[in-house]
Write a structure and sequence with these properties.
alpha+beta; three-stranded mixed sheet; elongated
């Protein structure tokens, strides 16, 4: 169990799954840069995260912008959407203030683009699911990712393997954060779409320096 002071941002697990160096540049070195993709993503989240839009939709309760936390993972954040569906009993269900009966939860994460060839979006939804399980003392079966470009949502089954993978990412995030060391640069195809490419400089760094150290080296020459 992690303490309050050790909590890291849950949204960072998606960055970490994409590239540990990108995550460290943002969360350790506090560097960030916007491109068209991140701007469009921010606009989509601003709509999904509006807490004033809470209400019923097709027999579901829609919760927006809910603070979530897992002390087992050491992660905290704000959910895009949590969908509550009615349950006939209290098994893996809980009571929700303002609504009668018992409810089951499924997290829904909004993404601007389309389905990824890897698990980066899935682990973010799984981490949200683990938060809800810990907060409500339930076990969740699945969550969802809604892709704005495709206008389609993808089911994310909370399998044992995905839980292990998510836990592993969270543990590694804490290890790197505690060390304060940014992982080495490694140029790959996905670097071309990264908003931090001009800060990371994967082609120029020799694999041992952080971006800050590289800039200090250049300025001293």
């Amino acid at each position: 169990m992690y303490s309050e002071e050790e909590l890291l941002m849950l949204s960072g697990i998606q960055h970490f799954a994409f590239c540990p160096r990108q995550w460290a540049l943002i969360h350790i070195e506090q560097q960030w840069d916007e491109n068209r993709l991140t701007t469009e993503g921010s606009l989509m989240h601003s709509r999904a995260d509006d807490p004033t839009l809470l209400g019923m939709f097709r027999n579901k309760v829609i919760l927006r912008s809910v603070n979530i936390v897992s002390y087992k993972l050491g992660l905290y954040g704000v959910s895009d959407i949590i969908e509550l569906t009615p349950s006939v009993d209290s098994s893996n269900a809980f009571k929700q203030k303002g609504y009668e009966g018992y409810w089951r939860a499924e997290p829904v994460e909004y993404k601007r683009g389309k389905s990824k060839p890897d698990e980066r979006d899935w682990v973010q939804v799984m981490a949200q699911g683990i938060c809800l399980e810990e907060m409500y003392d339930v076990t969740l079966e699945r969550g969802w990712v809604f892709y704005g470009e495709m206008r389609h949502r993808e089911e994310v089954l909370f399998t044992r393997d995905l839980r292990i993978q998510t836990k592993g990412y969270a543990e590694r995030m804490h290890e790197i954060y505690a060390s304060g060391r940014t992982p080495r640069a490694e140029y790959k195809a996905h670097c071309r779409s990264c908003s931090l490419a001009d800060i990371c400089l994967p082609k120029k760094l020799d694999g041992t320096l952080s971006a800050n150290d590289y800039l200090k080296k250049v300025l001293s020459e």
